[in-house]
Amino acid sequence: MIDIGSRMAIEDLFARYAHAIDDDRLEEWPALFTEDCLYQVISAENWALGRPIGLIHCDNRGMLQDRVTSLREANIYEAQHYRHMLSATLVTHFHRDEAKVVSNYMVTRIMQNGETMLFSCGRYLDRIKFTKAGPLFAERIVVMDSRRIDTLLAIPL
Q1: Nearest Cα to 35, choosing from 62, 70, 66?
Q2: pLDDT of 103 higher than 90
Q3: Given a cut of 90, is residue 74 above it in pLDDT?
Q4: How far apart are CA 114 and CA 44, in angstroms?
């Protein structure tokens, strides 16, 4: 059973994650992960079939930082931003310094001209480590309900 303080710390981590992305503070995003983390975006179909192929696969914090650097300096894409809607979290496992958590998400994409659309929805499968600095994502698997993205998946989900 998880204590209320740990549950609130997890909720705070989720909120900081969504706001870092939605408020275009992407440089803060990698710091929410452990050094040896895993961040993967994969379709529900590939996930269900055990296929490890995803749209994004980063297996350490340095790769996340490189992704942000490339977004800022190298990639060319139409100006846009996201707005995350997150469900309540379900803690499926908790033991001292680690929790496994499942939650649902919806991300709307807002283009520079004001057009807003549902960009992605699915679930987060997380393994969270409780460190001296607070909880961090050791693993965040983003399982998208759709197997298609209509355009470049530039910004993290």
Answers
A1: 62
A2: yes
A3: no
A4: 29
Q: What is the pLDDT of residue 151?
A: 66
Task: Read off φ and ψ for residue 57, nearest 5 degrees.
Answer: -145, 110
Domain total for the chain? 1
CATH assignment at residue 100: 3.10.450.50
Mean pLDDT within 61-72: 93
Residues with Cβ < 8 Å from 84, sequence gap 6 or more?
A: 18, 21, 22, 105, 106, 107
Residue 137 lies in a domain: yes
Spatial separation of the C-alpha atoms in residues 144 and 121, rounded to whole Å: 6
The pTM of the full predicted model, rounded to 2 decimals, is 0.93
Domain encompassing residue 44:
4-144
